[in-house]
Amino acid sequence: MEVQFTGVSQRSPNSLRYRYRMQGVDRDWIEAAESGQVAYTNLPAGTLRFEVQVARAPVDWSRPVNQAQVELQVEAPWWQRTGTHLLGLVLLALLFAGLHAFLGRRQSRRRRRLESVVAQRTEELREKNAELEQASREREQLLTQLAHQAHHDALTGLPNRRACDLFLESAVERAEDAGTPLCVALVDVDRFKPINDRYGHQAGDEVLAQVAAHLLASLQHPSVFVGRTGGEEFLVVLRDMAREEALPRLEQARMDIAAMRLASLGDDLACTISVGLVQQASGEKPDDLLRRADERLYEAKRSGRNRVVAG
Predict the structure, then answer these.
(1) Are strands 182-189 and 36-39 parallel, antiparallel or unpaired?
(2) How confident is residue 8, by pLDDT bands cut at 50, 70 and 90?
(3) What are the boundaries of each domain within the chain?
(4) What stretches pass through the bilayer (predicted)?
(5) Looking at residues 62-82, what average pLDDT do you find?
(6) Which of 58, 125, 284, 292 has fewest C-beta within 10 Å?
(7) Does domain 2-75 have CATH number 1.20.1560.10?
């Protein structure tokens, strides 16, 4: 705002001096040598009073010639008004509420995405674990199968030569330590080569499988071990049995096999076995037992086959 002021003197107009102030704005009176105008900017809101005094030179402001004043009511600009402040607070609160809601929704979306990723990764891990467990089970099954194959005959399912040697060695040590009887028998299929030559190897394999099955069925006992040592020869280990008890068991097995018929080969094919049976002597080793059993086996062959010879 601008304020113009002047004083009128007919007698000595050039001797007039002025001072003015805006209460609430100017700290003190401001002197001016002549009339004029003053401009104010950025006036504070509220009630203001502009005052001006005039005096003759020499100046004595305690006795001014005249004075004037103007009361002003300055309205605050819209941005400084209480309503605007309240509206601003409301808008600011709404802004914060909206920002909070936006951040909350974004956080919720992130959490859902994270939960989805975690669930996906968990499912992938579960599938991987299931695959690893399945692979582990398959590996165990394969190892079990390989171990079985390493110690069992593929044709008859009986323990093979290696397993026979290990079992016989263990049985001999056990019998020596416990002082219990032990019998060993070697079983050989009679005239097996003519069967192979006449009916073929497939028929020979069936004969061996049937003989193995009948030996197991006839000699079924927790203390009896039956294995195939190779070709048409089988090993029978009878733990905790003396020769007197083992002999009738082997005789029964011999008779069962002699009564066996293989009608699937086209006619009533029969076969017999020869058996050499020995009982372990004190301190006798596995090789010695097998040698003596083999001697009894050949004795059975020389005596006409289809018999058990005990020694």
Answers:
(1) unpaired
(2) confident
(3) 2-75, 77-151, 161-310
(4) 85-103
(5) 84
(6) 58
(7) no
**264-to-57, 206, 207, 254, 267 alpha-carbon distances in Å:** 157, 10, 11, 21, 7
Q: Is residue 148 scored above 80 in pLDDT?
A: no
Query: Which amino acid, 14?
Result: N
Is 0.85 surpassed by the pTM of this model?
A: no
Question: What pLDDT sits at residue 265?
Answer: 60
Distance CA 249, CA 194 (A): 28
Sign (positive/negative) of CA torsion 136, 142, 146, 149?
positive
Given 71, 133, 232, 233, which residue is catalytic? 232
Q: What CATH number belongs to 161-310? A: 3.30.70.270
Distance CA 246, CA 234 (A): 16
Instruction: Report d(CA 134, CA 53) in Å as an integer.
Output: 108
pLDDT in tens, 272-283: 999 999 999 999
Please state, in angstroms and rounded to a whole number, the distance separating the CA atoms of residues 157 and 59: 141
**Active site annotation includes 169:** no
Six token digits for residue 218: 């006839």
